[in-house]
Amino acid sequence: MTEPFPHPGTPTTAVPAPAGGGDRPPPARFAYDVHTWKEIAHLLANLPVSLVGFVYTVTMLFTGVGLTVTVVGFPLLALGLTGSRVLGRLERARARKLLGVRVEEPSRLPLLRGSGGFWPQLWMAVKDPVGWRTVLYELIRLPWGVLTFAVTLTGLFVLWPVLPFVVRGLANADRAMVRGLLSPSDELERRIAELESDRGVVVDTAAADLRRIERDLHDGAQARLVNLAMGLGLAKEKLLEDPDAAASMVEEAHGEVKLALQELRDLARGIHPAVLTDRGLDAALSSVSSRCTVPVKVTVDLDERPAAAIEGIAYFTVSELLQNVSKHSRARSAAVDVWRSDSRLFIQVWDDGRGGASLDRGTGMRGLADRLGAVDGMFVVESPEGGPTTVTAELPWRDRSLDPAGDSPGAGRASVRGRR
Fold first, then answer.
1. Claim: this prediction has a pTM higher than 0.85
2. Are strands 344-351 and 378-382 parallel, antiparallel or unpaired?
């Protein structure tokens, strides 16, 4: 089986793109080398490129901002800022090719997966910091493009001996503008966008759980208790005139009480099982695995308990995955492994069934992935046709909202043990 995470001891080396000196060409010389010619080409192209960007940006601003008093203004502005992102991507590519500036691409605007609908997504696009920084870049580029084009073109005929030094100075100013205005959003901006996206998932999940509890109470225990009250009322009326019938009705009501109590226990277990609160994940997962239709081996390797919210998410994740094993996998055996690596909690559910599980098939797996993503978790499904299926979930040991200093997703992944 292919492991979703490396074995302990696997060397992992992260080499970030240099922010400064690593993407600088060699010092300028009187000789015209390939770097100088690339810089000359970049500076001469500044005028036509900046003219196109300036015209687009001014048109977009006047149209979008001018029509914000109407219903189409903000959508046009959001669309225009999306186009500005495209211009920024093209400018980064040009700077990377001709100036050697290595700037990472900004992350895409997240899609709001909650019930906010069109307007929250529109508002996120309108206040996109990447788009607005690109707008500022395009506005200041036209006068700069005129200057660099004129100086470079004139220098080719007048300043030939010292032109490499002049070009290097102008190109370095271009590099600074690209790094300053077209670089990715900082981590705080990324984090805010992710949290805005995940907030909708949390709200939707809570609302769905409340609707499920209400439906289960209405259709299950409440209906049985209503029938029980009616049955006991009839038994009371027949108590004197027909004691045998009354006794039979009381006996039937007693059975209804047992069923109602069992449904209430099941409902309480679905909200938060008492065994999880009292004894932790080991006992709770052993309990839920005993209800699976295939034999399940449970291994929990934890020397302490994670945060209560994370513990609950881990329990319900395993519970739903084992339900999928029972209903869909046609497996003969399954296994659940839970362990900790640094400040992350890992869960791995394996079965030897027919495979073919995917996040794109049905809403169950996708819902689990969304729930884990809302708390900085990860969800990986490996399920080739014919099996086996391995689902690995990763959660922060502590709830990020309560512990802002917690590790980022994937922290400690190099020390994660391959379980199967």
1. no
2. unpaired
